[in-house]
Specification:
The protein is α+β, with helices and mostly antiparallel strands. Helix content is 42%, strand content 16%. The chain has six helices and six strands. Helix 1 packs antiparallel against helix 2 and helix 3 packs across helix 4. The longest helix is centred in the middle third of the chain and has 13 residues. It is flat and about 45 Å long.
Length: 153
């Protein structure tokens, strides 16, 4: 299984998102650019609050309502996907290639780590085929305790 740190960021997604929004008549603004750039640099999904906090920390203050408006536009255009890991909604770039990863969630601290595993993907395809389903999309969420929480527990 690939370690979470080996999951690539989203090369080219930032430019792609900007181009799609520009072609669809959306004006380019600083707040939108900041959210798009941040999402394109992440290894995994972020909540609206995490996006807001990260932009403030980077001295690119964007209003909380503006973060949600940008996320709505990106969702409408199919540029991001909403990831439901139970509780707070999270968002990450949607890749046209269909390339994706899955998530490990720490039940203690809420930390989310991405992972990819080719044998798991093949197993999921076999399951779908065996049940005569054509799998269009899937999500795998593994829950447990991260190494930091186990060390302090």
């Amino acid at each position: 299984m690939a370690r979470a740190r080996n999951v690539p960021r989203y090369p080219g997604w930032t430019e792609h998102a900007r181009a799609v929004l520009s072609r669809s008549g959306h004006r380019s603004g600083e707040a939108r650019a900041a959210v798009i750039e941040l999402l394109g640099q992440q290894r995994c999904c972020l909540s609206a609050q995490e996006i807001f906090d990260a932009l403030r920390h980077a001295r690119r203050p964007v209003g909380f309502a503006t973060v949600y408006r940008v996320l709505d536009v990106l969702l409408q255009r199919g540029l991001i996907q909403r990831v439901d890991l139970g509780g707070v909604a999270r968002y990450e770039p949607a890749l046209a290639s269909g390339e994706h990863h899955h998530h490990l969630v720490c039940d203690d601290c809420g930390r989310v780590e991405p992972f990819a595993d080719a044998p798991l993907e093949r197993a999921l395809e076999r399951v779908g085929g065996g049940l005569e389903y054509e799998i269009g999309a899937h999500d795998v969420v593994l829950r447990g305790s991260c190494v930091d929480c186990r060390a302090t527990g």
